[in-house]
Design a protein that fits this description.
By secondary structure, this protein is mainly alpha-helical. The protein has helices at about 5-15, 20-40, 50-60, 65-85, 115-120, 130-145, 145-150, 180-195, 220-230, 240-255, 260-265, 270-275, 280-290; strands at about 160, 165-170, 175-180. It has a three-stranded antiparallel β-sheet with strand order 1-2-3. The protein is globular, with a radius of gyration of 23 Å.
Length: about 300
């Protein structure tokens, strides 16, 4: 079987059986195509050996790619060759011995409570655009949903009476998140005024968040909106929409929420993914220090 045919079968598997989004699918295919470019021809899939893959990975290091990018590409290759083995297209898995790079320790960017509250009040809620933008910021911080989940939200995902919202997460997994009364009031107010924002009519009436063209808002648009209000609030522009999610989880943890609850709210399939927030719980550590350390008894 030629590599091109194997990639085609893997694509169908990801799209149909795994139900991956177009964004995730594109990421997988880009990583595999990088390998094909390295090979320079459409080889038989059985000709690709462990040493071929190791040469490809070494070339990524030589290009100066980050460890997280290389880790993602290795994970993609492992998924690809595991699929080929399970379907009987190849006998041996050349990716089996590939090792992931050592983890880079990264600290998340988290808003302090004063900065996030100031940012939430920055949009001018008297205008349709400003009200929409304020609602976006409120939803990102108030629910911890991903940007990709935010833009996919439809009006019928909102349970106005039950104070909750249905979110379409990774792999088409759905979860329900709680809303506050003021979220519901903001959504209702925004829905009444959003027709004024769409100059040529609402073309995607099912979408909760739309742009001036009346179509569904995109991830990139949300990033621009966040950057706009960061500048207006005098905050560093290197914060991203995803940092609202980090802030949501960290503030919950600091105020006593258990990891299992946070895991559900964030939509993590594994608790170990959620545990990365525990090292950020500095305020709790300082409280324990104040109670337990002899220095706290001074004066």
């Amino acid at each position: 079987m030629k590599a091109e045919e194997a990639i085609s079968k893997f694509t169908v598997f990801l799209q149909v059986e795994k139900g991956y989004s177009q964004h995730t699918l594109k990421s997988y295919l880009n990583d595999i195509n990088d390998l094909m470019l390295f090979l320079k021809d459409n080889k038989e899939i059985t000709e690709i050996s462990y040493f071929t893959l190791r040469g490809f990975i070494n070339s990524l290091y030589e290009k100066g790619l980050s460890k997280s990018t290389i880790e993602r590409k290795i994970a993609c290759l492992k998924s690809f060759f595991n699929f080929l083995v399970k379907r009987g297209f190849i006998q041996d898995n050349p990716s089996r011995l590939l090792r992931f790079p050592k983890k880079e320790q990264k600290l998340f960017k988290v808003f302090n409570i004063d900065d996030i509250l100031n940012l939430l009040e920055t949009p001018d809620r008297s205008t349709p655009d400003g009200l929409r933008d304020a609602l976006i910021l409120e939803m990102l911080y108030g629910t911890g949903m991903r940007v990709s989940e935010l833009v996919l939200t439809d009006i019928n995902d909102v349970d106005f009476n039950g104070l909750r919202i249905r979110v379409k997460g990774k792999g088409k997994k759905e979860r329900v998140l709680p809303l506050d009364y003021f979220h519901i009031e903001m959504i209702q107010d925004y829905l009444q005024k959003r027709i004024l924002m769409a100059k040529k009519g609402v073309k995607n009436p099912e979408a909760l968040f739309i742009n001036k063209l009346g179509t569904r808002l995109t991830d990139r648009s949300v990033r621009r909106i966040v950057e706009k209000y960061l500048k207006m609030a005098g905050l560093p522009c290197d914060y991203s929409p995803h940092d609202f999610r980090h802030t949501f989880a960290t503030h919950l943890l600091e105020n006593g929420a258990d990891l299992r609850t946070i895991q559900h709210l964030l939509g993590h399939s594994s608790l170990s993914t959620t545990q990365k927030y525990t090292h950020l719980n500095l305020s709790e550590i300082l409280k324990i220090y104040d109670v337990a350390h002899p220095y706290s008894k001074r004066g």
